[in-house]
Amino acid sequence: MTQEYGFDASRFRLGTLCKRGHDWNSTGQSLRRNKYKGACLECEKISIAARFNTPEKVARHKEYRRKYLAAERLRLGTTKQRLKLLEQGLTQRGAAPLRRHGGVRRQDAAYRAAIDRAGRCPSVARLVMREQYRYWRKHPEARVDHHRKWRRASWWLRYQTDPDLRMYVREKSRRRKAQEMGLIAVAIPLSAIRQRFNGFGNRCAYCGSSGYMELEHVVPISKGGAHDISNIVPACHGCNASKRTRPMEEWYRAQPFFSEIRLRRMQRITGDPSGQQLPLPLALA
After folding, report:
1. DSSP bridge pairs for 227
2. Annotated domain spans of the chain
3. Distance from C-alpha of 257 to C-alpha of 261, rounded to nearest angstrom
4. Nearest Cα to Cα of residue 95 among 85, 105, 103, 81
């Protein structure tokens, strides 16, 4: 058996010797297809030649292929291809004539226009949306309730994923609390808060841990502290919840992670005169 086929690993493979002994390039194996149960290519040629050994069989096979391909074009083809096949009297099965009202073919201009307007079938999602809009037209209160729930869910999703929005909400909440107590309350822009957090390396001013930082008022609002950038440092949730309304320095010195350098730094940023200069040993540390 001579090499008549290019060896394409995606289509062919070398398998066991077939029953007719077709040896491919003296390898002791037959060239087989990956599909169709691994049929030998030479055996396929012999089988096809025996199947179509008369002109009648060849003509019958060509007619079958013509009808099969016409049916596929009718099912999957373009609008013009479907119209042409319908005018020839072919249906999806490819043989029976298309009849309407006593055998009259639908070839008029109205039928052509209907096919052009039909286009592609709508998707499942579009059908579902059409049914939803139809229901909303009959029940407008259901549409209002749906959009209200959707806005709420969208806002909550944005709140969970947007750190700037979370910071804005917390700043506004603290500002409202200070205003209700009659204290100084200044609207702090997000740029100023970012700058203050970057000054601490986006870490907790008390323990130095990283992660999501909260707004921490060094002098608590409940103790008369102002809602101003000079009274705010970043703090983790654990330190913020542990400090609560206690004086900052008294609480901080009692913690196991107390650092004199961090304490002086906070005092310097918040304007405490005692923190204007670090002791020499700490400055050299």
Report:
1. 185
2. 12-51, 55-118, 124-161, 163-284
3. 12
4. 85
**Mapping DSSP to helix (H, G, I), strand (E, B) and coil, where does residue 103 land?**
coil
The string of pLDDT tens digits covering residues 72-118 is 665 555 566 666 666 665 554 443 444 444 433 444 566 666 666 66
What CA–CA distance (Å, rounded) separates 73 from 75? 5
pLDDT, tens digit (0-9, with 9 covering 90-100), for 161-206: 898 899 999 999 989 999 998 888 889 999 999 999 988 889 999 9
| Predicted confidence (pLDDT) per residue in 17-51, tens digit | 888 888 888 888 888 887 767 788 888 888 877 87
pTM for the predicted model, two decimal places? 0.48
Q: Could you tell me which CATH class the domain 163-284 is placed in?
A: mainly alpha
Q: In which region does residue 104 sit, left (phi positive, over 0), alpha (psi from -120 to 50) or beta (all else)?
A: beta
DSSP string, 122-136: PPHHHHHHHHHHHHH
